[in-house]
Design a protein that fits this description.
- With 248 residues, the chain is mainly beta.
- The protein has one domain: Beta Barrel (Porin), CATH 2.40.160.
- The chain contains no helices and 12 strands.
- Strands 1-2-3-4-5-6-7-8-9-10-11-12 form a 12-stranded antiparallel beta barrel.
- A hairpin with a 7-residue loop joins strand 7 and strand 8.
- The two termini are 19 Å apart.
- The N terminus is likely disordered.
């Protein structure tokens, strides 16, 4: 789910679901949400092509406080000539815990279960759960996601509970264009966290905006370029999202 209703390792090619920022207030009640999201990672070596990831999401607000969705993911591994293949499917759920603006901090709980189409020890199913938070200060909006995920694999190096996070500070300049700064990272397993340079962190500017389409609903977009802040991160990552919200 996008800014509207994130995070397996970023590696050379960051996965699109890892770069998704989730707001606790985007429930989309009585609306159908259709979302495409993607990312392209670039390796530090100039002669190596980065990976690509694409996703297609369909969701709706079941109630004013509960949003559910399903998503399909496709991935092309780093390196020229690799094919794009179906990576898996996800079931997503967002529960809003507060009414927007009524408390010091808006909060929600997000969970997703990812079913891999590749299977095997290196492509296990995964469960992610965490808190999503939002705070408006003047004309700025600040969003923070804190997640714990567990891969179901017999391989000890793949399994275990891992911690990840996402953050955005947005200046609400205009509805159609609101510049922001974002950061996405992973700190490794909870029982043996990575050092800073071994962890994964990408940071950069992002353009966001919303266009009102009358009875057809709303069109939201995000587009940005994020730079690797550690040795374990990709040198650069382009990310984008297009979301259509259609009332019914």
């Amino acid at each position: 789910m996008g800014v509207a209703v994130a995070l397996t390792a970023l590696g050379v090619a960051a996965r699109a679901d890892e770069l998704r920022l989730i707001s606790p207030n985007e429930i989309d009640y009585r609306e159908i949400e259709i979302e495409h999201e993607g990312s392209a990672g670039f390796d530090r070596s100039p002669d190596k092509d980065g990976g690509r990831v694409y996703s297609l999401d369909l969701g709706t607000g079941v109630t004013r406080w509960w949003h559910v969705g399903v998503e399909l993911d496709w991935e092309r591994e780093a390196g020229q000539g690799n094919p794009v293949q179906l990576d898996g499917a996800q079931i997503e759920s967002l529960v809003r815990l507060t009414e927007p603006g009524e408390n010091w901090l808006d909060a929600g709980v997000y969970a997703e279960y990812s079913r891999s189409s590749l299977h095997g020890r290196d492509s296990p199913d995964d469960l992610l759960v965490g808190g999503v938070f939002l705070k408006d200060i003047g004309r700025t909006t600040h969003t923070l996601n804190l997640f714990f995920d567990r891969a179901f694999s017999p391989d000890e190096d793949v399994s275990g509970v891992r911690f990840s996070y996402a953050w955005q500070s947005r200046w609400n300049l205009w509805r159609q264009f609101a510049p922001a700064i974002e950061a996405f990272g992973r700190a490794g397993r909870v029982d043996r966290p990575d050092g800073f340079q071994d962890g994964q962190l990408i940071v950069g500017p992002v353009a966001t905006g919303t266009f009102l389409l009358g009875p057809a609903g709303r069109l939201r977009y995000e587009a940005g370029y994020l730079l690797g802040a550690t040795e374990a991160s990709p040198s650069g990552t382009v990310r984008w999202k297009i979301e259509m919200e259609i009332p019914f």
